[in-house]
Design goal:
about 0% strand, globular
């Protein structure tokens, strides 16, 4: 069975566009610090970023190495130069979180139903 890449790209792009909303806990007001890594995506083509993230198999790596490799991939895609180690780290944190939020948002209803049925 072939995966539905269009659906995955739209999910990743939607999470990246609304990253702060996904981080907000339900029932809480917005606020707090914006993640520094988000500034690199303000004028970027989010769909191209999503396609690039999904075109690579990121499995089998530890989180630190993974987020730096994600940041390197997107840094070259966006033609960013001279990013410091900290800037890459911050960008990688966002990218790794976006990939995780994609799965959480898809299964959120199922997760809620599963947890309530076991009580």
């Amino acid at each position: 069975m072939q995966p539905n890449y269009y659906s995955d790209v739209s999910k990743v792009a939607e999470v990246l566009r609304n990253f702060s909303d996904y981080r907000k806990k339900p029932g809480k007001r917005s606020g707090g610090k914006t993640w520094p890594g988000l500034k690199h995506f303000e004028q970027a083509d989010i769909d191209r970023i999503a396609i690039r993230l999904l075109s690579t198999s990121w499995g089998g790596r530890k989180a630190t190495k993974l987020l730096m490799e994600m940041a390197d991939a997107i840094e070259s895609l966006l033609c960013l130069t001279n990013l410091s180690w900290n800037q890459k780290w911050q960008m990688g944190r966002v990218l790794l979180s976006v990939d995780l939020f994609r799965f959480v948002s898809v299964g959120k209803t199922k997760l809620i139903n599963c947890t309530t049925s076991y009580k």
